[in-house]
User: What shape does this take?
Amino acid sequence: MLEVSTPEQEMALGVDFADLYESSELHKRNKALIEQLNVPSPGSKQLHFPSRYSQSFFSQFLVCLWKQRWSYWRNTSYTAVRFFFTTVIALMFGTMFWNVGSKRTRYQDLFNSMGSMYAAVLFLGVQNAASIQPIVHIERTVFYREKAAGMYSPMAYAFAQVVVELPYILVQAATYGIIVYSMMAFEWSAAKFLWYIFFMYFTLLYFTFFGMMTMAITPNFHVAAIISTAFYGLWNLFTGFIVPRTRIPIWWRWNYWICPMAWTLYGLIVSQYGDVKDVLDAGETTEEFLKKYFGFRHDFVGVVAAVIVGWALLFAFLFAVSIKLFNFQRR
Assistant: This one.
């Protein structure tokens, strides 16, 4: 049929098949049939479905989660490298800051311990955010196709993408926490150890969700990397480690309170040293020094924990909304 209806055959025969069809009885009958079918029969009703999707939201979420689980499990270059990087960083920091957690007699000892926490948050957090962006970019291409086919809602996909990260980051935080906590010789109490794991876990969570969010609001991971890098610079400046909150000019101090890394550093330090009564070489206790120099209070740790959880939920919510609203597909 394709060979017979080519323009070369029309030129050889001296005819135009399109004109022949338009002047034929078949064309007239088809037009009449179309007009007839466009008129609804008496008593008929418009086609209606009770919901847009064939399955409930929870069923869509479970299917998307199952799909994402297999996608992550087969993506060894992403999961294995992330765990390998975490283990290497933990061993490197553990040997570099060996036994620093048990030293509490000098100001420099506290600064060294803070430096280990600050560096860990910066290294692991930025690595998590940067590594997730290409993954979301690839998964989003598949999502566009399946969304157009009406397979599931965008929110079900977004929540599945968020939930699938939870166990991986838990293993990552536990691996880092156990290695570093033991090598740096922090105080072995159940409360302090669990606080350390808690703050590391939700810090890695909100960094990962932040990387996903920046990817969802940008056309590709190159633009997402540029935007996120700008935020890392601002967060790094207002963590409270380079310049303590008490020494930040009052007109810039609001940046400290909206900096996620500042809350993480606050929680890690105050949960480990905020209630320590050891006397430093200048005659004041560790608790008094942290309160005077950094403005850290141990009774504020519960609020800090709630804010850290809030940052993770906020970035996850913004990722879900952005996936639903923005479409960067090019046809």
In short: The chain has a mean pLDDT of 89.
